[in-house]
Amino acid sequence: MECAGKGRGTRCMGSARRRCGRCGAVAYCSVSHQMSHWNEHKEECERLEQQMKRADVLNDFPFTFSQEATATSQVCEKQGSRCSFLSKRGIHQLGMWMHECCCTHSEESSSSLASFDSSRLLDDGWNLSGDLCPCHDPISPISECVSSWLDYYEWRCIPLHSPVALLLHWPLTIYHAAHIAGVWSSTVETRKLCVHYLGPEKELLQLAAFGELLALFPGVQIHIEFIGPAIPRQRDGEKISLCSYAHCLDADCICNFSSENLSQIANTGKSTSMTLQLRSGFYHERYRSLAEDLCPHLVISPNAGIAAYPSWLPTIHARN
Predict the structure, then answer these.
(1) Which of 112-126, 226-240, 248-262 has the lowest mean pLDDT?
(2) What does the pLDDT look like over 246-282, one tens digit per residue?
(3) Is 121 exposed, middle or buried (0-12, 13-18, 19+ CB in 10 A)?
(4) Measured between alpha carbons, how far is 294 from 71 in angstroms, rounded to an integer?
(5) Residue 239's beta-bridge partner residues?
(6) Which of 26, 51, 87, 131 has the highest CB neighbour count under 10 A?
(7) What 3-state DSSP class applies to 250?
């Protein structure tokens, strides 16, 4: 967790381990940063306190590894715990899992973003056997009954000890948001979905996981605009085509043959395709030009620290 007072005149003095005593939702590196941020935080503190009271409900997952995973993700200082979790499953520092622990520092992440090869990243697989990951078309079409992780794992025939949810929360959040916003049914009818995805960070290095949207929105032409300051300026405007699922380790699995790319047409009778476009900068700086080209059905910001970062305020105004 970053210091909520980061960028407020003085540099952070270390890790953000000093949590707000009331809400516990934000943390600071020092007393001075906590005091300087109070005028902004006090307006959100009570709301965040109420949300934090639901933390146990939000952490009530069906996975067999739930307690281990949530504990290691919440306690930043236990760096080795998350590494141990990944190592036990043979995925530590491999492919898309590389940025799921503290072994890859922020400087290395920035360097990776600046030099990433989208074609290579799309070749990154799950580094898991085929029975543990969604690497090919589902056995049955998706239904509106898929409303929880348990529903999803059962639909995709994935055992509850599989860790893929740690990466699939990116595409599943888009799917869930589409349902909440009432967009899903209209998308199925129009066969088009445009998403403005704000503030992407490490998911830019896990793009292959977004291939699961091909199963979640069958027969739909999906276009996602990734917009945020973490995208290097030299990558601005880059367009990426994603037409298959992240593959598994099984050499004889269909996902490791090029013919899998044609499965969407063969199985549904309709072509499902996805394009991802990178946009560098803040959303409020790019919104007007993007909306002129294609108005979004959904605007989503999974990494937004709206209460902590004032740079989000112009973006909120742009959307209102």
Answers:
(1) 112-126
(2) 999 999 999 988 544 444 434 444 466 899 999 999 9
(3) middle
(4) 41
(5) 277
(6) 26
(7) coil
Could you give phi then psi for residue 125, rounded to 5 degrees?
-105, -170
Q: Is the dihedral of CA 89, 66, 246, 263 positive or negative?
A: positive
Rounded Cα distance between 153 and 174, Å, is: 17
For residue 150, the SS3 value is helix
Tell me the three state secondary structure of residue 218: coil
List, for residues 289-305, the tens digit of each pLDDT value: 887 778 899 999 987 76
Structure-token pair, residue 166: 């740690």
Torsion of CA 11, 317, 283, 305, to 10 degrees: 40
- Whole-structure pTM value: 0.78
Q: Three-class SS of residue 151? A: helix
- For residue 293, CA distances in Å to 91, 225, 300 come to 40, 11, 18
Could you tell me which residues are beta bridge partners of residue 224? 195, 276
Domain boundaries defined on the chain: 1-58, 117-319
